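Support request from a user on the community tier.

User writes: "When I paste my structure tokens into the form, the page sometimes reloads and wipes my input. The last time it worked, I copied everything first. Here is what I submitted, just in case something in the input itself triggers the reload:"
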């Protein structure tokens, strides 16, 4: 079986300019934890809940400049307004792992395990997005189909 057999062709995505607040609404309304970032239909990044949550913590520079205030966890929670205003391009993973549609399903799963990701954008040879595949899709295709 190939990735093309199990991937979703309808893909939620954002642009580099999408604000975190809009991306967060997408996460909650569609029950997902991350989406590709596209520019002219090409995958240029990936943004997840984790990328947003990391923004609550100070950078090393911020911590070095003010360790007392920057280590205050209750104050960290108050950063949400600033975080909501960030654009996807500022916090996305800039080297997303992608996969081709003709790759075997278990190779895609191996790629996910190796890279510690739960989903992969599926791209054609020119880098244009054609779908997305998640561990759940592979599980449903390989295991769920055999249960019927």
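"...and here is what came back when it finally went through:"
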């Amino acid at each position: 079986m190939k990735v093309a057999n199990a991937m979703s062709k309808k893909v939620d995505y954002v642009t580099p300019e999408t604000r975190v607040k809009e991306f967060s609404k997408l996460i909650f309304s569609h029950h997902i934890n991350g989406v590709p970032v596209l520019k002219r239909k090409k995958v240029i990044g990936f943004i997840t809940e984790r990328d947003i949550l990391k923004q609550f913590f100070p950078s090393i520079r911020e911590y070095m400049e003010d360790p007392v205030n920057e280590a205050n966890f209750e104050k960290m929670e108050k950063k949400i307004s600033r975080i909501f205003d960030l654009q996807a391009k500022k916090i996305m993973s800039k080297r997303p792992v992608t996969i081709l549609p003709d790759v075997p399903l278990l190779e895609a799963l191996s790629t996910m395990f190796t890279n510690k990701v739960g989903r992969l954008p599926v791209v054609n040879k020119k880098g244009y997005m054609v779908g997305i595949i998640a561990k759940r899709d592979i599980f449903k295709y390989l295991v769920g189909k055999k249960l019927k």
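Agent notes: The reload is a front-end session timeout and is unrelated to the input. The beta strands are 34-39, 42-48, 119-123, 129-134. The first helix runs from residue 3 to 6. Escalated to web team.
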